[in-house]
Each structure stands twice: as structure tokens, then as C-alpha cells.
Amino acid sequence: MEIQRDKRKDRVCLTQSQYLKKILQRFGVNGKTKPVSTLLAILFKLSASMSLCTGDEHKYMTQTPYANAVGALIYAMICTRPDI
Q1: 16, HSE (Cβ side, Cα atoms, 13 Å)
Q2: How many CA atoms lie within 13 A of 49 on its CB side?
Q3: How far apart are CA 35 and CA 29, in angstroms?
Q4: Could you tell me if 4 and 83 are in contact, meaning their C-beta atoms sit under 8 angstroms apart?
Q5: Within 13 Å of residue 6, how many CA atoms lie on the same side as its CB?
Q6: pTM (2 decimals)?
Q7: What is the full DSSP assignment across 21-52?
Q8: What is the β-pairing status of strands 2-6 and 11-15?
Q9: Cβ neighbours, 10 Å, residue 21
Q10: Which of 26, 12, 13, 32 is nearest to 73 (CA)?
Q11: For 45-84, what is each residue's pLDDT tens digit?
């Protein structure tokens, strides 16, 4: 957690940006994600056509420990960042 102080404006800001960057680097997705300004639409639905298609995609996906990645992001989301 980072603490930033602005004495002139009498503000204190807490951020977790470094923690989230470390998670992305640890799981090899740094630079492969796109930031969004809003959450997914309520009616957003996943479909089979969005799933992995090629053997290369399957091989890449099996190299990432998803339970650990999701757990790390859930920790950040629930404990500190409800907007990620």
C-alpha cells in the first residue's frame, strides 16, 4: 500500500497500484490487459465462441495458475479496491 500526502491540500491518498502491477507481472499478463473506465455491462454474456480455439492458446493458458491470480485480484478488490 502506498500513502501519498499533500499537505497544502490537507489530503492523504492510499493506493494499491504497485501491488496490482506486481500481480500482473507475476502472472505474465503485464502489457496484455486494457484498462476500462466502467464495469462490464449488466447484460454482458459469455459464449462458447469467446473460448480458446487454437492449441497455442490452450498451451499459453495452461501456464498461468488462475486460482492464484484470481485470488490475488479478489483480495485487492474486496480489501482495498472495489473498483477493479
Answers
A1: 17
A2: 1
A3: 13
A4: no
A5: 6
A6: 0.52
A7: HHHHHHTT-TTS----SSPPPTT----GGGS-
A8: antiparallel
A9: 11
A10: 26
A11: 778 777 777 888 778 777 778 788 888 888 887 876 555 5
